Amino acid sequence: MQILIIEDEPRAANQLQNLLKLLEFEHEVLEILDTIEDSVSWFKANPAPELVFMDIQLADGLSFEIFQKVEVQCPIIFTTAFDQYAIRAFKVNSVDYLLKPIQENDLQQALDKFLSSKKPSGLDPIMLKSFLADLQGVERREGILVKEGDGFAQLRISDLLYIYSEDSVSFGVTAHKRVIIDETLDQLHPTLNHAQFFRINRSQIVAKSAILKIDRYFNHRLKLSVVDDRGQEFIVSRPKTSEFKEWLNR
């Protein structure tokens, strides 16, 4: 059984492979991909695998974006850390979805469902088109709850210059202060206005209005100068460079 794994967390990819071995599922991993861009390139250059395990939240966006750029004609088992994406996964006609951390029994059930299907197929194009339209029309949040003293306060999203993660804690920076946010970047990113905010790498989201200067950086990356950088380096990861340039031109 030839499978493709699309997962941007090495630990999660390793755990999946270990579970497949534990369940004695005969398979060959063709590739492990971690970005939308690399996944699109792979599907364009290779025959469809027999099965894909696909993480929904990748470093450069939601994996559903892959289907907007290339036709995927194979069964998919989605993986996600968030229940909110479970219904979305079924809307695009996946074989199944698995919540992280993946449990042995859940993986076995998903594999049984896949193997029992007489004619496992790819995604329903009509369902997919409808789903993507719904996804793009999701209402973006205007405020965010942040810690303030012994309590909480609401901060306007439009006031944020950038958001970053450090030692598993999320911080938001405005022109006047830095605040702690009780959400991960994976949870925050889908809810932001993507016309105004861009996730330049796994640990940083930057507002377009905060960017002062853009310089070339080694290994085909970009380095940003932003308002009130607080000693942080802002490097656009290589897989996101072309998308970032397009975003700036909008």
Automatic annotation (TrEMBL):
Q: 4-aspartylphosphate occurs at which residues?
A: 55
The HTH LytTR-type domain sits at: 144-250
Q: Which domain of life is it from?
A: Bacteria
Q: Which GO terms describe its molecular function?
A: DNA binding; phosphorelay response regulator activity
PROSITE patterns according to UniProt: HTH_LYTTR, RESPONSE_REGULATORY
Q: Which Pfam families match?
A: LytTR, Response_reg
Q: Which residues does UniProt call coiled coil?
A: none
Keyword annotations of the record:
DNA-binding, Phosphoprotein
Q: Which residues form the Response regulatory domain?
A: 2-115
Under SMART domains, the record lists: LytTR, REC
User: Which PANTHER family is this protein grouped with?
Assistant: STAGE 0 SPORULATION PROTEIN A HOMOLOG (PTHR37299:SF1), TRANSCRIPTIONAL REGULATOR-RELATED (PTHR37299)
What is this protein called in UniProt? DNA-binding LytR/AlgR family response regulator
Q: What is the lineage of its organism?
A: Bacteria, Pseudomonadati, Bacteroidota, Flavobacteriia, Flavobacteriales
